[in-house]
Write a structure and sequence with these properties.
In chain A, about 85% of the residues lie in helices and about 0% in strands. By secondary structure, chain A is mainly alpha-helical. Chain B has about 180 residues and is mainly alpha-helical. In chain B, helix 1 runs antiparallel to helix 2, helix 5 packs across helix 6 and helix 6 crosses helix 7. Classes of the chains: A mainly alpha (about 90), B mainly alpha (about 180). The interface between A and B is large, with 38 and 42 residues.
Chain lengths: ~90, ~180
């Protein structure tokens, strides 16, 4: 029961984050909202794994967390530097 | 009950995201929304008990392709989509007809998880009965992919490796020459 309520609450949170991602006036609102959606998807899969008794799905939730992290780092790197091939340290040295 | 609720909500999110992708003209935002789209469809695959497909969708759709598209966007100058000059009436018609044909086609598909469907008649019973003792893998789908069709998976990996190598040679080579020009 409590997990169903948790799943419902997570779905509501995702919809709120989605609304911010679509409306968000600045780029950073959208990046944060999209990171939020990714995190909530991880939570949703973990809750669903417990709900349906297939606990091996928690591994998938972990993979999602990693992918989400890489995605957000890539987005922020593009925003900060405009490319992928210079490292941040090089720019500071110049 | 909660399965159905999650299913419906995720499908609604997918639709909303797709409409938002059409409406928004900032390419940067569109790429990130594509990532969300992939995450939602991967969530749907998890709910439908297809963890390997969900894995692939999340890794390729939300992970690698987002990064690759961002890398492509970084090489272009304009981050805004050009406004279309004409209305796409004929493509809309073609899409509607194709969609109607596909929906019509789904009526002949066996229902989800139907044990009598042709796909579940041929080698599936053996996989379900013997896969654990023959391969030692608890998940049947993983047993089929990693053990029974091991060579097939190896071939797929070779294809992906070759494609990745090609992309790295193309993009990486260009970046190195550009760096040389800068210095």
């Amino acid at each position: 029961m409590i997990f169903s309520v948790a799943a419902f609450a997570i779905l509501v949170t995702i919809s709120l984050a989605l609304a911010r991602a679509f409306m968000g006036p600045t780029l950073y609102d959208r990046i944060l909202a999209i990171n939020m959606v990714g995190t909530k998807t991880v939570l949703l899969i973990a809750v669903f794994a417990v709900l349906s008794g297939r606990t091996s799905m928690i591994d998938i939730a972990l993979t999602y967390a990693l992918i989400n992290f890489i995605g957000v780092v890539a987005v922020l790197k593009i925003v900060e530097q405009g490319n992928f091939f210079t490292s941040g340290d090089d720019d500071r040295a110049k | 009950m909660i399965d159905t609720l999650i299913d419906i909500t995720l499908l609604v999110f997918l639709t909303i995201t797709a409409i938002a992708i059409i409406k928004i003209h900032n390419l940067f935002v569109i790429i990130m929304l594509f990532g969300i789209f992939s995450l939602h469809s991967a969530g749907l695959f998890v709910v439908m008990d297809a963890p390997d497909v969900a894995f692939t969708e999340a890794a390729v759709g939300a992970g690698i392709s987002t990064v690759l598209m961002l890398a492509t966007l970084a090489l272009t100058k304009d981050h805004h989509e050009k406004k279309p000059k004409h209305r796409a009436r004929l493509p809309l018609l073609v899409i509607l007809i194709t969609g109607a044909a596909l929906v019509y086609g789904t009526y002949d598909i066996p229902s989800f998880g139907d044990p009598d469907s042709p796909a579940h008649q041929h080698v599936k019973p053996r996989y379900i009965e013997r896969s654990v003792e023959e391969t030692g893998v608890p998940n049947v789908v993983t047993a089929v992919l990693a053990s029974y069709r091991g060579y097939d998976t190896l071939g797929e990996l070779t294809v992906i490796f070759t494609a990745g190598l090609g992309v790295m040679l193309l993009i990486g080579g260009r970046l190195r020459s550009r760096k040389k020009n800068e210095t």
